[in-house]
Amino acid sequence: MTAKLRAPGWYRAALWTVLGLAFSWLLVGIGRTAMHYPNAWSDGEAITTVALIAVPLSFLIGLGCFDYWFYYASGRPTRAEDHSAHGARRWQDYFRVNTDHKVIGIQYIVTSFFFLFLGGLIAMLMRAELAQPGMQFVDAQGFNGLFSVHAALLIFLFVIPVFAGIANYVLPLMIGAPDMAFPRLNALSFWLLPISGVLLLASFLAPGGAFATGWTAYAPLSTEMPLGQAFFTIGVQFAGAASIATALNFLVTIITMRAPGMSFFRMPLLVWANFATSLLVVIATPFIAASQFFILLDRALGFNFFDAFVGAGKDGSILMYQHVFWFYSHPAVYIMMLPGFGIVSEVISVKARKPVFGYRMMAFSLLAIVVLGFLVWAHHMFVSGMQAWIRVPMMITTAIIAVPTGIKIFSWLATLWRGVLHLDTPMLFALGFLTTFTMGGISGVMLSMIPFDIHVSDTYFIVAHIHYVLFGGSLLTIFAGIYYWFPKMTGRMYDEHLGKVHFWTTFLFFNLTFAPMHLLGIDGMPRRVADYAEQFSALNLFVTIASFGLGLSTLVFLYNMVVSWRGGPRAAANPWRALTLEWQVSSPPPVFNFDAVPTVVGGPYEYGVPGAVHGIFQSPAEAKPTPAGSVATSPTRE
Predict the structure, then answer these.
(1) Is residue 607 part of a domain?
(2) Which of 39, 250, 439, 570 has the highest CB neighbour count under 10 A?
(3) Which range, of 135-139, 258-262, 500-504, averages the lowest pLDDT?
(4) Nearest residue to 427 via CA among 475, 377, 499, 514
(5) Per the domain annotation, does 514 fall within a domain?
(6) Residue 263, class by beta-carbon neighbours within 10 Å (0-12 exposed, 13-18 middle, 19+ buried)?
(7) How many Å apart are CA 175 and CA 155, to the nearest integer?
(8) Is the residue at 353 inside a domain?
(9) Contact 331, 410 (CB under 8 A)
(10) Structural domain of residue 49, as residue ranges?
(11) For the purposes of burial, counting CB atoms within 10 Å of the CB of 366, is it exposed (0-12), middle (13-18) or buried (19 or more)?
C-alpha cells in the first residue's frame, strides 16, 4: 500500500485530496485567527472557497500531472524516458495521465459526451417543467439553477472541449507529426476538464443550491448569490486554463511540427480552423478568467470591482463586467464554430469527391473571423444601459462578420455542385449543418439590427438563435466528425443504418423543438423563467414533446457508438478513400503515428485529379514537390 501511495495514480490522488482539504482548513483557520475574525476555524463558506482551489490542485498532484516538472525543478539528474505513460495498451490506460495525443483525444471526447448527456437530462427536466404553466417539479430558484448548469456544462464542458478532443486525435496525424509539441501539458489540460465539470455539478449540493445566474454570471447578482456561485466562478477557471493550454499546444504544434513539404497552404482546412480557433482562445480566454477572478475577489475578500452601489468608497462598475465578459464570450461563439467549419470542409470534399472550392479564401475567411470576432462584443449589450453611440458601430461590425461566414457557405455549396455525392452519415450531418447554421446565421443578422434586437432581447427568440448556432451548427458538425473519424479512432465501422436514423431523428426533432421558439420570442415570452402566461401554453407543450424526441435520438447515437466500438466490422485503413495523411496509416494508428516521416507533395483535396497525391512516405530528398492541383506520380502513391 505504501508503494501505491507513493506512485502517481488514483491511490495517491485520494491521499492528496484529503491533504488538500486539510490544508484549506488550516489556511483559513490560521489566516482568520491572525486577522481576529470570528468563527476562525468553522467558517464553512471560507473553507469551501479555498478548498475549491486547493483540493483540485492537490488531486492533480497526486494523480501525477506535475511529477515530471517537479522532478525537473528539483535539479535531480535527468531520467531516461521509457514512454511507459504513452499510448493505450489496455482500457485502464484511459484512466491515468497519458501523453499520447490519441489517448488524450479519446479522453476528451468521451468525457465531453458524458457532460453532454448530463446537460441533456437537465434540459429534459427544464422542458418537463415548461410543458404547461404553473410550477410542476421545481421552484423558481431551482429552475434558475437548472438552466445555469445546463448552459455552463454544454458550453464549457462539451462544445469547446469536444472540438479540442477531435483535433487532439486528428491534427498531429494530419500534419505528419508524431505527437503534440507538449505532451505532458496536453495530458494536464485534459485532467483540468473533469475537475471543472465536477465543480459545476457539485454546486447543486451547496447551501442555497446551484449557481443560478446563467452561464453569463452577471454582476452584481453573481457577487451576492449563495455559495453555489463560487463553484461556477472557480470551475470556469479550470476549464479556461485547459482551453488556453490546449490552444498554445495546437499553435506550437502547427507552426513547428508540420511534415516536410507541408506549407501553410497545403494544410487541411481542419488544421487552419484549429489554428484560427487557438488564436481566439489564447487572446480571448484571459478576459473571462479576469472577470471571474474579479467576481471571486468581490465575493471572498470584499473587493468592489462590480459593486452596484457607487459611492461610499465602493465605486464599482457593473457595466464593466459585461464589457469584459462579452469581449471573451462573443469570440467564444467562434471558438465553438470554427473547428466545426474545418470538419465540414473535410467531410464535404471527401464525400463529394471534389477539391474544396476557394481553398485559400476559406483559409483567409477563418482569419478574418478571428479579427472581426473582437469587434462585435457590445451587440449583446444593446439594452444594458451602455453609451448609446456605440450601438451603431457594433451593429455594422456584427453585420459585416456575416461576410466571411457567407464565403464559407458559398464555397461549400460550390464544392457540392456537380460532385459525386456519397450521402452517408457524416455527409448527412454536414448537409444538415449547412441548413440549420444558415438559419441561425440569418437570425443572427436580424439580431444585429438595433430595433429588432431591443424588441426580442431576453426572449425565447434568443434561445432559438443560440441553439440554431450551437446545436444546429456546432453539434451537427461534431456528429459529422465523430462518424467520419470513428473508423480511424476505433478500428471499427459503425452501423450506417443506425447512423442515418440518428441523423433524421435529430434533424427533425431539433427543428420541431427550436423553430417554434422564434415565434414565442417575437410574441414576447421571456427566457429564463419557470412560469409563463397562458397564451404561450400550446406552443410550449409542442416544444416539450419535440424536445423529448430530440433527447431520445441521442440514445440511438450512444447505442451505435458503444456496440460498434465493441464489435463493429473491422475498418480498413482508408475506408473513405481520402487523401489527407491520417488516412494513410492503419486504423487505429501506430503509437507514434508513422513508421516513416511523410513528405507532403501536393494539396489535401485533389479529388478528381488523376494521379494526385497529398503525401508520400519517402525522404524529402527523394520526393519531388508537386504544386497543388497538378499531378504527382510515385511508387508509394497514397
Answers:
(1) no
(2) 250
(3) 135-139
(4) 499
(5) yes
(6) exposed
(7) 28
(8) yes
(9) no
(10) 2-73
(11) buried
